[in-house]
Amino acid sequence: MSKKELHPKDYRDVVFSDEAAGFSFLTKSTAKSSETIKWEDGKEYPLVKVQISSASHPFFTGEEKIIDTEGRVDRFKARAARAAKMKDALENKAKKAAREAEKKAKAAEEAIEAKV
């Protein structure tokens, strides 16, 4: 493939729509789509739905909000909660083992003192 054949030639007008923000724009693109939409000029164009755009991205809006379309945030929070619970359980187990070891050491010292 030569450099002349590197870039696509099938550019056409396409509407990109960020439905979460209620924002759409018309531009040239090679993106494929089976959906269409009637645009402000009365013509029908291919429609590409996007989950995030400049209207909803925190970098452009200046506000931070979490867009969780696949439950990733919830799964992360659940995993973090399980990890914290496990950490607490292990800490309690270690404290209990330390107390038991301390009791045994004290009992051994008392037994040695009793023999002396």
Give keywords.
116 residues; alpha+beta; 2 helices; 4 strands; 41% helix; 22% strand
Structural write-up:
The protein is an alpha+beta fold. Helices cover 41% and strands 22% of the residues. The chain has helices at 58-61, 72-115, and strands spanning 12-18, 23-29, 35-38, 44-50. A four-stranded mixed β-sheet has the order 2-1-4-3, with no helix packed on it. The chain starts with 11 loop residues before the first strand and ends with a helix. The model has no long low-confidence stretch (mean pLDDT 86).
Could you tell me the mean pLDDT? 86
β-strand percent reads 15-25%
* Overall SS class: alpha+beta
Helix content: 40-55%
Give a summary of the structure in a few sentences.
By secondary structure, this protein is α+β, with helices and mostly antiparallel strands.
Layout of helices and strands, plus pairs?
Blueprint: E1 12-18, E2 23-29, E3 35-38, E4 44-50, H1 58-61, H2 72-115
Parallel strand pairs: 1-4
Antiparallel strand pairs: 1-2, 3-4
